[in-house]
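User: My instructor asked us to take a sequence, write out its structure as tokens, and then describe one feature of it. I'm not sure where to start. Here is the sequence I was given:
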Amino acid sequence: RTAQQSPFHPRPKASRSQGTGVVSVLSSELRKSLEEACARARRESATACRAALGSLGVTDATVPAHLNEEDRALRRGLRAKSRQLGDSAGSIGLLVDECAFEQWHRLLFARFLAENNLLIHPEYRAPVTLAECEELAEDLGEPDGWAVAGRFAAEILPGIFRLDDPCVQLRLAPEGRLELEQIVAGLRTEVFTADDGLGWVYQFWQKEKKDEVNASERKIGGADLGPVTQLFTENYMVRFLLENSLGAWWAARHPHSPLVKEWEFLRFDDEGTPAAGSFDGWPEHVAGITVMDPCCGSGHFLVEAFGMLWRMRVEEEGLNPLDAQDAVLRDNLFGLELDPRCVQIAMFAVALQAWKAGGGWRELPVPNFACSGIPVKAPVEEWKALAGGDPRLENALVRLHILFRDADTLGSLIDPKRAIELSDATGLQKSFEDVEWDDIAPLLTQALAKEAGDPATSVLGADAAGIARAADYLSRHYILIATNVPFLSRGRQSSLLRIYLERFRADAKADLATSFLAWSLPRSHTKAVVTPQGWHFQKSYAEFRRCLLQTSRIAQVVRLGNICWQDHSS
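Assistant: Let's start with the prediction itself. The structure tokens for your sequence are:
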């Protein structure tokens, strides 16, 4: 059965004003134009970045004589970034991809902000238009208005674009920069005002890479994993799962709440109570609800959960909307993702939603999102040096180095609390229970303040702090895990991933998706997930089904047909 053919009784449909207007989605035509623009932008940005990196001599054994001191510092940072990403000697393919993404998305995000009246002058805290950015260019020493807009976007989004990131600091030659500017300027305004416009950006950016990997028929792991497994989740799937979990919990306690009437996918039984149950094991108040998406992609589940949670807190606690939104970002919402570029998009998507719902730009708490897929490729001695002589910090950094060395393949499956890390064939990795991971990032910040002038240390330090946050979030227990898990059958997995899943949970190893479902079982009270249906009946999952039925209660199962991923915009 599809979600639209549920036997449970839905409430009458209501328009989704919810403070942000009726939901609008991209038409087929606009999706196509965005897809073409993203594909073209990836090619042009990669070409321009490779040329810019070449002019800095990033792959040269010696520093080019024509570089000034500022360029030399940038070159050191870029070389450190390349090592940390895992580029082999003389190769900068991963660095080019990273720089290309940053350069294009800074412009794209700037236009998202501008079209929603949220592009803010960082000094005067007042909205500016793209035309006004053009007027400011000469005084700010920028080549044109788009460069100003990109700079402003980076300065008001410090949790997304790090201004000291060498990939952000890289300057493209005029012809490359102008090509990207023309692409983003050519997109229609509706792309930037639709509710799902931002959500499609990453999938379209990765489309050509995904096609290339699939055509190669090589085993999937590392840098190939994100493009192949990422799939933007349709709005109706996200809403059905959240409304019949988080929404059902609220409806059971507040049946007359006006919010309940807005949830058109929430199903009720013949007695008028939520069909999925009342979730009696959950906290009684919204402040205690934690929602995690461990495969958050571009943040679709997180954006929807944010909208539900802050309205609940307004109604239950009497908070004003802005305070409620800030409280949700601080206390209720968590996200992890294999690809750091997706984390950027997810953070921006949630921030954009908060600004729209709050009536304009304001400083926000940095969301509890982290990248669980940053691989630790730099030598361990470089990591130990970040500790600045602090033995406790040095010990934690060595542990992180071991734990996350294959993070680009394992991502959110990494378990900091296992007695022996599954990927460590030597058996040297011991328990992480004694590490308070939320203490590590502040300690790193203090240690790195002493080395603020070293661009290479800055690159490693930023990744280490991000990995420490990921370890913290991976160590927690959540009330609700809501996600669309990555699908990848065992026959397509790299040897590292196959071995890890075999050791992690042999009864769920046949697909990465089912392994993620198994991963979620001890980490949350309730799971609301999109998965393949093979584990419902295939013989290879018999033991997994038995375990699931013995340890869990299945509240709802909705089977989607073969056309569930088709274009629902028309």
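For the description part of your assignment, you could build on this observation: Confidence is low (pLDDT under 50) at residues 1-22, 419-433. Try explaining in your own words what that tells you about the chain.
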